[in-house]
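Q: Fold this one first, please.
A: Sequence and structure below.
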Amino acid sequence: MKLFLDCEFTELNQDTKLISLALVSEAGHEYYVELTDIYVRKDCSDFVIQHVLPQLDLASHGQTLVEAQASLLAFLSCMEGPLEICSDAPAWDWDFFCQLAYVNHRWPANVANRATNLIHIFRQLEADEIGNVTLPDLPHHALLDARILAGLYKRLTADSHRGAKDGR
């Protein structure tokens, strides 16, 4: 089963820190967390301060890193595997996912140990003559973005199956 990953983080550099992480499964299961203890506002770029931080609801979704690791592992353990983590920005998102999923030198047994690049999948689907695949402008909220990516994948693969049935 594919899980669509999106993260929000403090800035685009090597010192970036995780703000929020979301996973949405093909079946519609969702995991979402906002971190409360690994960054402070001064770590954030102006863009993040203006566009990401105002969307957070720490009272509802806030967890410490240790709590987030435990809740993510609980979520993943309830999913039937194997699980494939898909991201449109794996160069950034995968390390954050690993930060939460790799605990006490253990990797979740039902999770593939590398990310799948959604851009490659979308390009392949486009090459199969589904039409132009253009990622929509994402709202810079990890859960909303992961939902959009999951929905786009579902639509494109449905179009692909329809095209195969129609002889395209």
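Q: Good. Now the second chain.
A: Here it is, same layout.
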Amino acid sequence: MIKRYSRKELTDIWSEENKYKIWLDVEIAAAQAMEKLNQIPKGISSIVRKKAKINVKRIHQIESQVKHDVIAFLTSVTEKAGIKARYLHQGMTSSDVLDTSFNIQLVQSGKIILKDIDQILKVLKKKANKYKFTPCMGRSHGIHAEPITFGLKLASFYAEFKRNRKRLVDAIDEVSTCAISGAVGTFANINPGVEKHVAKKLGLKVEPISTQVIPRDRHAFYFSVLGIIAGSVERVATEIRHLQRTEVYELQEFFSKKQKGSSAMPHKKNPILSENLTGLSRMVRSTVIPALENIALWHERDISHSSVERNIGPDANITIDFALVRLTNILDNMIVYPKKMLENLNITKGLIFSQELMLELTKTGLSREKSYRMVQNFSKKCFAENLNLIDVAQSDRYIISKISIKKLKSIFSYSKHMKNVNFIFKRVIK
């Protein structure tokens, strides 16, 4: 992933240095188990741990000749640790190291992404409570529908990210497995106790049944969850972008003192960070299909998944981490305009209360169909002549004869739309 959209915490996890370090941890843990089982001489794991050094450049040099990354790694370790390193990897196959290590990298990444989500939840909770009763326009199809509060809008995002957190916890658990089962997964040349020891040592669970690889449905689940989280990021980002449009302008991204919005137009303040999140979300979601397609490997193993995972492993995790941190910053620093929200509520001059007027008419004895048609005709008149719905309603003889002025005025009130805000918040934000 390019540095522009990367944070060091994640790039360190997906660095070559860290990858080979994990490989070494797996090999040493396996050697420890083999020593306990009297399969290799005592002290091998200690010697390797003490003498082996990760030299990425040297591993690449060897790989350029042998065309095999695990063999190149083992050769490099032997060069430093000495002849006794020949006892490493006894009865193991490359996938034992690669898959177990890849899962560790996913777990490491997932735990940081969980922290990112926790920060978003913290900010959303704070902002939702702050704007709990700030009235704003609820829209469907982009058109004014009925009043809500800005706090409810944020509470909806909060609930979604709570679900995302749970999904990610489950996904981390799903990939927290270890396979040290040898060629085609039969343990023909390695004791199952080695796998058990490695799993415990590295904080993983034993893969109940592997072929020559850990089943890729586990990884597909993990990357699918990242894709869902990316969708949630884009949902919030899109809302911010819409609400910052000049015609709406109910909020805006923070714009620093020396920031410039356009090379041509000095007046511009563009929602560039939210737009950026929309693009990054697309990138994360683009990794989901390849991850799903990795499930169907030939027989007990092929390597069609390998090139995919070398790309999507770092890219998806680094990108979603960056996007979540950026979204937290946007939400924490966004500028909200409650007065503009109220102004927009009144743009349609009471038409947003049409449902309540229709329902009240049904109480007078009219059918729903007739009530709907009557209010719809009033609304058309309001649109055509730029009138207030309450004024048009009050000029109708039937309405005046059936509905009191006091009751009519109560229909055109925001209070009814806020009466259950606390009820909803209690269900969502605890």
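Q: Anything worth noting on the second one?
A: The mean pLDDT is 95.
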